[in-house]
Amino acid sequence: MTKRILVPKIKLSGGAMPDQPEPIPPDLAKAFADAVFAFGVWSPEQNGRVIPIRRRGFYSISSVCDFVNRFTVPLPERVFKKLRSYMNDAPDGELIAKLEADKSYSTAARCLREMIERRAAK
Q: Containing H/E element for 2?
């Protein structure tokens, strides 16, 4: 007689695989891309450049970073390249290493926020 092993079925919300990162909603992905590109002309005197997020309102670059911080999916290459173009070996060596090692929205958001804080402190 053959033994059957019963494995409990686990229902996942949204049908995602347990090891799959949560996908970023398109409106947040676009807002983060806009935030990265806006950072190039942002200055602390602007009191927070506002980025539109569809059906949510207008938010500062820092707030957009907060919204995408939990997403570990990779950045689009053009957004990665733009963010990386703002970084210099000094003082951004550590940020460069972090972003090169993990090209996710989460890491990119932390790097962008740190660059904002550094620019605001000047």
A: none
Burial class (CB in 10 A: 0-12, 13-18, 19+), 55: exposed
Kindly state the DSSP code that residue 20 receives in the 8-state scheme: S
Torsion of CA 35, 40, 41, 46, to 10 degrees: 50
Do 91 and 15 form a contact (C-beta atoms < 8 A)?
no
| pLDDT tens figures, 1-13 | 555 544 444 444 4
Q: For the whole model, what pTM was predicted?
A: 0.81
Percent of the chain with pLDDT over 70: 83
CB neighbourhood size of 89 (10 A): 7
Domain residue spans of the chain:
23-121
- For 25, the token pair is 């909603």
Token pair recorded at residue 45:
């005197």
Tokens of 30: 């676009």
- Report the 10 Å Cβ neighbour count for 74: 16
Q: Dihedral (C-alpha) 74, 80, 83, 89: value to the nearest 10 degrees?
A: 100
